[in-house]
Structure prediction request, 143 residues.
Amino acid sequence: MKATITWGGDAKFIGKSGSGHDVVMDGPPDHGGQNQGPRPMEMLLLGLGGCTSFDVMSILTKARADVTDCVAEITAERADAVPAVFTKIHIHFIVTGRDLRDPVVKRAVDLSAEKYCSASIMLEKGGVEITHDFEIRAPEDAQ
Prediction:
């Protein structure tokens, strides 16, 4: 896996993934940026969320769960001192579908957290406390 980061002027950088996709990262105006993209630390959270969501949906699909939507809401805390590393991350899954059962969704979330999500496991080994929970919604309850 490879990636290239190119300076775009001021506090803007363009990341190019090995699969050929570009992502603009930028800083806030008070740090020389123009707010044209997410911050690099936000990208870490997005990567974590994408990794674990991919796992959860893959496991639920294999379990033949009738999922119509899956949202991962992520909240994070960072250290006050430099380096301002993540200290705690919480991932709340909102899984919407028909006839979904708690044990099936719990198993998918647990397997992602404990076995499959490389991003989550890597961050935990680095000292980040990561917690997970979920709620199940019926399609008519979705907002």
